[in-house]
Amino acid sequence: MIFTPNDDKIEAECKAIYEAVLQKEGLTLLGWRQVPVAHEVVGRFAKATQPRIWQLLVQGKQVRTRGAAP
């Protein structure tokens, strides 16, 4: 789960960084899921700085165990 700024341009930059790091680490990004938030219960001051909340769905590396078929 990650938090991004409430700004489309900066959010896109943040997502690109996460995607590049995952690729560098040999992981596969399966998708992004925006976490639902009940905006009506957030106060007006909190809304001004409220981040966007995302879940990353990531597939790990394939690990072969000794004696396992290729």
Describe the protein's architecture and organization.
This protein is of the alpha+beta class and 70 residues long. 33% of the residues lie in helices and 26% in strands. It has one domain (2-59). It has helices at residues 8-24, 44-49, and strands spanning 2-4, 28-34, 52-59. The model has no long low-confidence stretch (mean pLDDT 90).
Quick overview:
The protein is α+β, with helices and mostly antiparallel strands and 70 residues long.
Features:
70 residues, 2 helices, 33% helix
Largest sheet: 3 strands, antiparallel
Quote the beta fraction: 25-35%
What is the radius of gyration?
Answer: 17 Å
Task: Give helix % range.
Answer: 25-40%
Question: What would the average pLDDT be, to the nearest integer?
Answer: 90
Number of domains: 1
What is the H/E order?
Answer: EHEHE
Strand order of the largest sheet: 1-3-2
Classification by helices and strands: alpha+beta
Distance between the termini: 33 Å
Shape annotation: elongated
